[in-house]
Amino acid sequence: MNRKQRIQPSRRLFLRGMLGGAAVAVGLPLFDFMLNNHGDAMAAGDEIPTRFGLWFFGNGVHLPTWTPPTVGADWNVPGDYALSALLPYKEYVSIISGLSVKTAFHPHHSGMSAVCSGGPHLKIDDVRDTIVSTMKYPSIDQVAAQYYQSLAPNPYKSLEAAVTRFRGTDEGTQFQHLSHNGSASGETNVNPSEESPHAFFDRLFNTTTAGPLIAKARGSVLDAVGGQIKTLQGKLGSKDKQRLEQHLTSISEIQSRLNIPTAECTKPGDPGEFPDISSNEQIAEKNKAVSDLIALSLACGLTRSFSILYSNCGSGAVFWMVGATDGQHYMNHTEPEPHTKQQEAVRFTMKQLAYFLDTLKNTPEGTGNLLDHCSIFASTEHAEGWTHEQKDMPMLVCGKGGGRLKGNVHARIVDGNASMGPFTALLGAGLPLTEFGHEEGFVNSAVKELLNV
Q: Which of 141, 174, 322, 422 has the fewest beta carbons closer than 10 A?
């Protein structure tokens, strides 16, 4: 009888201890002894769990330098296109173009709800020359989270993080938050995205939120479970020992990057540990921290559903690194053709998505990596921000979905229903759906070109 047959491991292992008077839990990656002899499924025969992610960026794209010129397998784009940043990961990335929002139109509001929930927005009130709204139906990260929790509860039903900070608007929850639980009567029902990587790290390891930096100054979360680590190391083979060491090093490196001197151990403000430098937001640096933390949470088995609000609907983020001086939303209204700064801002944004995909790809799991076991839907609320058009919506489906997604495909469905995009990503994540969407967003067909069915 081999070792895999003798040991009946649980899905995940957790090391638990105390730090600064608070409980901490360190999740561990999948080890070889948890897998079958081929390393492509769990020892008990279950498949390696697929994760679902929603990655959102605001204000649309520049379609002429976004959409691949050819349709079908093996998509490609010129070097000045925004998607050129994703070419190194094209085997994991598929593009959907041509789909349109079919629900009642309103700038920003309807596009946000359509791509994130498959339904119309819910108007709550009027304000100035626009409206206040929320999502009438749950966002797709919560659709996936609900299903995954019904199979086997995770420590976190879902995790929500933000990259660029919210700069203020009075147009409702859709402009500040990404993850929604649905709100038929208009009440606030959101899962706020954590803007502070310090606080997000703290949440992942169950330390107190009242004084996270003080707790970290007293010692490392790894020190709190050091004895358990030594015991576990004695039970692992050489390959699993190496994987454990890499995993713990990742935790230590992230914690080290987020720590500040003891003299400054106070609760971080908003945006906390990434203050502006010469009035410039540290977007790339914060994206790196958020990407690493989400990858860590998935490797630790802390959740199977997540959302990343890279920039919010109607975002006022200033992409200073491409020479912009105005917030992106205002710039979309004022920059003349050919919208050079917007083109460069979208190229920069795709480089940030590329970093996240690279992080997942370089996190081993079984015989593959985390990106092999993810289905990630990325989109925005407009086709192009200066027209506020919601036809030909930019959509990406990233990851292999545990083998359900082909990758490296450009599918174009002119004037198809926008709900087909998120529906496809949910199927790639393993949800047993035959239909998706609400009201005018209802669909019973996905983008079959992207699926291995």
A: 322
Contact 358, 369 (CB under 8 A): no
Per the listing, tokens 């720590």 go with 259
Q: How far apart are CA 163 and CA 165, in angstroms?
A: 6
Q: For residue 305, how many other CB atoms are within 10 A of its CB?
A: 27
Strands (E), 334-446: 364-365, 368-369, 374-379, 395-398, 409-412
**Residue 208 CB burial class (10 angstroms; 0-12, 13-18, ≥19):** middle
How many Å apart are CA 335 and CA 345, to the nearest integer? 13
Which residues, in sequence order, are bridge partners of residue 306? 53, 159
Give the single-character DSSP code of 181. B
Torsion sign, CA atoms 317, 170, 386, 378: positive
Radius of gyration of the chain (CA): 22
E-state strands within 357-429: 364-365, 368-369, 374-379, 395-398, 409-412
Instruction: Give the number of C-alpha atoms closer than 13 A to the C-alpha of residue 206, restricted to the C-beta side.
Output: 18
Percent of the chain with pLDDT over 90: 64
pTM: 0.83
Concatenating the DSSP letter of every residue in 242-286 gives: HHHHHHHHHHHHHHHHH---GGG-S---SSTTS--BTTB--HHHH
Tens-digit pLDDT profile for residues 134-187:
999 999 999 999 999 999 888 889 999 999 999 888 899 999 999 999 987 777
Which parts of the chain sit beneath pLDDT 70?
A: 1-46, 205-235, 243, 247, 259-273
Q: Which residues have a Cβ under 8 Å from the Cβ of 222 and sit 6 or more positions away? A: 26, 229, 248, 251, 252, 255
**Cα distance between the two ends of the chain:** 36
Predicted confidence (pLDDT) per residue in 246-273, tens digit: 767 777 777 777 753 332 323 333 334 6
| CA–CA gap between residue 205 and residue 22 (Å, rounded) | 10
As given in the structure block, the two tokens for residue 96 are 């959907």
* Chain mean position to CA 301: 15
* CA angle (169, 195, 89) in 5-degree steps: 105
